[in-house]
Amino acid sequence: MLSPKLSLTDKKNRGKTDLAIIVAASLLTYLVAGYYDLAERWINWAALGEFYQLDEIIFVLLVLSTGLMWFGRRRYIELQETLKRNLEIKTKLEMQNADNAKLLLQNRALIKHITQVREAERNHLASELHDVFGQYLAAIDVNASVAIKYKTEDPKLQAILKTIQDSASYLRNVTRSQLRSLKPPGLETVGLSAAIEDLISQWQMSFTNYAIDINIDVDDKLVGYDTALTVYRCLQEAFTNITRHADAHNIYIHLVTQNKSIHGYDISLTIRDDGKGFDPAEGMGKGLGLIGIRERVHALHGQFNLHQAEPTGSVLTLTIPL
């Protein structure tokens, strides 16, 4: 058990107490020796062992005590030097920790800024796709449909018009899919629950070989836009990683808002799969996907955790206070 740290005043008082004990012990020894004539008794007793030179042992004890004092002094000096070096190392470590903490804050601020820039670029690209690309594709589709209705004796022209119409329809579907990825549909209007259900439904249409167990119990009125967007992006990123790396068959999604009587409401998302998991040494990898989600969660004063599941797979959980 570690002894409590002493103040400078307490250390001085303890030193005075120890010195007083030594002086008192010395005076007591002097009084006892004088009362019982210990010197004379020692001489008489040592004379009986003259063969062994017992009367000379007092000089041995004198040298031994002096040597112990010298030994203690050297160890004290070495201890002081060690303490000085330890204090210097401690100071350097504290400075390095302060620098590391500053760098960590700067890195988090940078990642947050990058995430915000990416989100702004996504919104801008979504607007361009919807307002420009989507409108022109719709116009091409309509014009091709009108042209097909006109009677023409050239079958090659009809085939070309049909090809143009099919291509425009395909590009419109691709554009619509990209818009869903870039900007969550209805997140501000219909709420997080409907947006999540729509995302899962669209994902299942593209990846039919996955079985998904869903449990969503969210009070959309409690969830702000930033929190809702973070949860939505986290689920998007999880789906991307599962399809690319997990080699899973079953996915469990649990999303709820709950009342933590002391801390108020929070929203909790758990995503678990039965895939091959990941290497703990690599953690979240080198990509910015999950790292960006983690920083978003931390920016909202939440908690983010990614770990391996038992016996196989991985589990991603996040909790954000509302």
UniProtKB/TrEMBL annotation:
<protein>
    <recommendedName>
        <fullName>Oxygen sensor histidine kinase NreB</fullName>
        <ecNumber>2.7.13.3</ecNumber>
    </recommendedName>
</protein>
<keyword id="KW-0808">Transferase</keyword>
<keyword id="KW-0902">Two-component regulatory system</keyword>
<feature type="domain" description="Histidine kinase">
    <location>
        <begin position="124"/>
        <end position="322"/>
    </location>
</feature>
<dbReference type="InterPro" id="IPR011712">
    <property type="entry name" value="Sig_transdc_His_kin_sub3_dim/P"/>
</dbReference>
<keyword id="KW-0812">Transmembrane</keyword>
<keyword id="KW-0408">Iron</keyword>
<keyword id="KW-0411">Iron-sulfur</keyword>
<keyword id="KW-0963">Cytoplasm</keyword>
<dbReference type="InterPro" id="IPR036890">
    <property type="entry name" value="HATPase_C_sf"/>
</dbReference>
<keyword id="KW-0418">Kinase</keyword>
<dbReference type="Pfam" id="PF07730">
    <property type="entry name" value="HisKA_3"/>
</dbReference>
<dbReference type="InterPro" id="IPR004358">
    <property type="entry name" value="Sig_transdc_His_kin-like_C"/>
</dbReference>
<dbReference type="GO" id="GO:0046872">
    <property type="term" value="F:metal ion binding"/>
</dbReference>
<dbReference type="GO" id="GO:0005737">
    <property type="term" value="C:cytoplasm"/>
</dbReference>
<keyword id="KW-0004">4Fe-4S</keyword>
<dbReference type="GO" id="GO:0000155">
    <property type="term" value="F:phosphorelay sensor kinase activity"/>
</dbReference>
<comment type="function">
    <text>Member of the two-component regulatory system NreB/NreC involved in the control of dissimilatory nitrate/nitrite reduction in response to oxygen. NreB functions as a direct oxygen sensor histidine kinase which is autophosphorylated, in the absence of oxygen, probably at the conserved histidine residue, and transfers its phosphate group probably to a conserved aspartate residue of NreC. NreB/NreC activates the expression of the nitrate (narGHJI) and nitrite (nir) reductase operons, as well as the putative nitrate transporter gene narT.</text>
</comment>
<keyword id="KW-1133">Transmembrane helix</keyword>
<feature type="transmembrane region" description="Helical">
    <location>
        <begin position="20"/>
        <end position="39"/>
    </location>
</feature>
<dbReference type="GO" id="GO:0051539">
    <property type="term" value="F:4 iron, 4 sulfur cluster binding"/>
</dbReference>
<dbReference type="GO" id="GO:0016020">
    <property type="term" value="C:membrane"/>
</dbReference>
<dbReference type="InterPro" id="IPR050482">
    <property type="entry name" value="Sensor_HK_TwoCompSys"/>
</dbReference>
<keyword id="KW-0472">Membrane</keyword>
<keyword id="KW-0479">Metal-binding</keyword>
<feature type="transmembrane region" description="Helical">
    <location>
        <begin position="51"/>
        <end position="71"/>
    </location>
</feature>
<dbReference type="Pfam" id="PF02518">
    <property type="entry name" value="HATPase_c"/>
</dbReference>
<dbReference type="InterPro" id="IPR005467">
    <property type="entry name" value="His_kinase_dom"/>
</dbReference>
<dbReference type="InterPro" id="IPR003594">
    <property type="entry name" value="HATPase_dom"/>
</dbReference>
<dbReference type="GO" id="GO:0046983">
    <property type="term" value="F:protein dimerization activity"/>
</dbReference>
